Amino acid sequence: DAKTTQPNSMESNEEEPVHLPCNHSTISGTDYIHWYRQLPSQGPEYVIHGLTSNVNNRMASLAIAEDRKSSTLILHRATLRDAAVYYCILRGNSNSGYALNFGKGTSLLVTP
Amino acid sequence: NAGVTQTPKFQVLKTGQSMTLQCAQDMNHNSMYWYRQDPGMGLRLIYYSASEGTTDKGEVPNGYNVSRLNKREFSLRLESAAPSQTSVYFCASSEAGGFTDTQYFGPGTRLTVL
User: Fold this and answer.
1) pLDDT per residue over A17-39, tens digit each?
2) How far apart are CA B49 and CA B34, in angstroms?
3) B45-61 pLDDT, tens per residue?
4) Cα–chain-centroid distance for residue A48?
5) Fewer Cβ neighbours under 10 Å: the N or C end of chain A?
6) What is the DSSP string of A12-28?
7) How far, in Å, CA of A22 to CA of A41, rounded?
8) Which of A96, A98, A102, A104 to mutate to test the interface with B (most CBs of B within 10 A)?
9) A68: β partners
10) Contact: B41, A30; criterion CB under 8 Å
11) Considering chain A, what is the average pLDDT of its residues?
12) Could you say which DSSP state residue A5 is in?
């Protein structure tokens, strides 16, 4: 299975942009890059996903490297409510189609 | 819409007791999932149901059984609880289970086995 690597933790100031990196050097051509986050004491929630092109939605932006071996989740203005664990997950032929393979993710701390 | 609901929210069991965790979704989704999350870890898939009438094992199925009661409901049963099953259990659902599919999660059931 293709694997992802994320930093254990990151810290940001409120109202500043946050760039959360993810490395996936063994990604296959059919693998989509998904991001989920888990707020404290809650279930995970979907953030964004993409295949090759950069993607934007109301929550975040996803920047995908040209060779697809890495990606970055961008929160444009962090709020205290964005403090969560962020998971970068590959979904495609190199992984089970049904399971979301959560690793340990990146724990984001947002300070006022 | 309530989304994905789970009952109970908390449960304490003694070793050897049995219980069923209930999950329901009101989004008319075809696929449903049960995950467990141990402290400081990511979620791991226990069982899933790709569509009504089908169930399949995930990464950690030992000690569990599931029933896809109908399209809305997917239950997880612990026949003889063990302390190793102390965890937070999350149910999720998705439209079709494909590579671009989004999974929607319930609030979780916190289970302690003494």
Assistant:
1) 999 999 999 998 889 999 999 99
2) 9
3) 999 999 999 999 999 99
4) 8
5) C
6) EETTS-EEEEEE-TT--
7) 24
8) A98
9) none
10) no
11) 93
12) B
